[in-house]
Every structure is written in structure tokens, then in C-alpha cells.
Automatic annotation (TrEMBL):
<protein>
    <submittedName>
        <fullName>ImmA/IrrE family metallo-endopeptidase</fullName>
    </submittedName>
</protein>
<feature type="region of interest" description="Disordered">
    <location>
        <begin position="187"/>
        <end position="206"/>
    </location>
</feature>
<feature type="region of interest" description="Disordered">
    <location>
        <begin position="1"/>
        <end position="47"/>
    </location>
</feature>
Amino acid sequence: MGESPRLPMKARNATLSEFETAPNDTRDVPQSVDFSDKSTRSDDMEDSLEEWISELQEATEDARGAEVFRQWLDAQAKLHDYSPRNTALIHMQKPDASMVAGFWTWQNEFDRSVKEGESAIWIWRPNTITAKKCPHCGNAPNYHEDNEDLNCPLAPDAPEQWDSEDPNEWTKGEILTGFSPAPVFDVSQTEGKPLPESPDTDAEAVEAGQGEDVLTALQDAAREIGFPVEVVDVDEWDRDAKAIARTSEDPPEIEIQDRDPAAAAGDLAHEIAHAVLHTGWDNPERPEREIEAEAVAYVVGRYFGLDTSGSKFYLAAWAGNEPEEITERMKTISNTAAKIIEAADD
């Protein structure tokens, strides 16, 4: 996995078309952006993210929008521990990145060193302080004083007015104070001790026999999250869909048709997403629900090596959404996929 050519951020910000690659396109990896200028790095990172989301918003009714969205989902499947913003930033800078970590993490935990001359990939790192924090909202006492609109039962009263919950008795914990740029490097930028071998999770291997293991893991994950799963014999199945989540029930029950394990695992990932996201949902728009569930299932499927080639993303259902709404939807997809992956991995 070679390093992609880098274009200075000062020259221009990344645009949607730079990350667009048709399904059968044989061109090289798209050119990446660069955040090497320390004096403008934070602004450049924010500007690139805002422009990327804005152009995705404008392309919701265009096929290229769906392809760029798919590419982001591919990155999310490989980097599911990272936030949607950081996954997008990593993809912008190094589209072929598959596993990233900080300089000292590579050295101390994996006994690998960053190769000489490699350029860092910049992401947002949360900055925290350890201090007394509100048991309701997690903020510091002085934050309540300065924010009258804070959604907390103890705001906007000043700390000295709290009788029942004295701030001096609050336990200490980490409080988020903001974000700052932090450098990470892809595994292809390092050398040293070989990484532990990962299970073979390409689609052919899963179809050849690992599909049953993935299906079992996802069944266990659904139950751990709180959704019972029933596998119904194909002769008794009387529905058009191959799986269903009864999101009107509490807890929602998931039923899947007893068929090829790899295919059933993909169906189950989709229905777990529905159960997590849409139980008791008061939004009747089915297309929006389907995009979210399909996107989550795609990330989970890619992570476990399922065949996701039939996934469809009709982003036209997002047409008219503001960039903030699209960002929130991407965060929801990312968090839900990570929740399912972590439960299944356990």
C-alpha cells in the first residue's frame, strides 16, 4: 500500500470528486490532501470536513454521492473505532489506510517503527481534564454558571445554591474541553515486528465456511444488546423479506429465515440495526430508515467479510437535509455499527 501523492491544502481543499471512484474504475488511488502546515492545520481540517459534508449533501440525488458514501462506509468498516469525522479525515489524507495508530503506540504496543520520511495523518484528538463533574450532565461546576441554557436539572443555578448535591462532594472524572489535531500513521507507513495474524474474513472465505461463525456471533450480539432472535425454517417462512425486526414490540423480536449462513448473517445485521435505531421511532419515512440500516449492515458485513456487493444506498431520501443533519446521521451509523461489531467480537 504505497503513499498517495499529496496536494497542499493551501492550494485547495478536498472536493467530493477527488474521492469518487466508479465501481469498476482502475485508476490509481485518488489524490489525498495534506495538513502539514501547522499554522493553518486546525482550520484546514475543519474546512475540509465541512466542504466534504456540504458536497455530499449537494450530491444526494446523484450517483456519485452514493459512491462516495460507500467509500466512507468502507473506511468505517476498517477503522470502526474512530469517529465519523476522523474516519473521513483519514480517508481524505490516505484513502488506502487500513489500520492507524500513534507513533508511540506502534512502537510500544506493536514493536514497529514509523518509516523515515513518512508524513503523519492528522485526526482530531479529544482534550480532557480531570476535575469534579456534575453527576447529571458530566460538566464542571463553573460550566453551569456560564451556560444558562444547559440542559441539566442543576442549571442555571450557581454551585453555592445547590443544597442537595454539593459540588464539593462530586467525584472526579474526565471532562471534555475540546479537540486538537493529533498525528497517526497507517500500518503501511511502519516496519518491524509482524502483526498478529487476523482471521481470514474475505467474502470467499466466509462463504466457504466462516459464514456460520459470523451468523452465530451476530446472534449472540443481538441477544447481548437485548433483542431475541428466532431462526425460522424456510418451509414455515411466509414473508417477502428474508428477515424482519418487530420494532413496535418491546423488546423488538428479530426473525430470520434459515438459509445460507453468510446471507442470513447479512440479513441479521440489517435487522439488528433496525432494532437498535428504530424501536418506537416516530419518523414514518421508510427510505430514511432503510439507508441507516443498510449502511450499518454494510459496515458490519465488510468488517466480518460478508458479501456486501448487493448493498444499495439511495441517498435521495436525504435530499434537503442540512449538513448538520447528515453529519448526525453518519455519527448514528458509525456508533451503531461499532456497537454491533464490538458485541459480536466479544
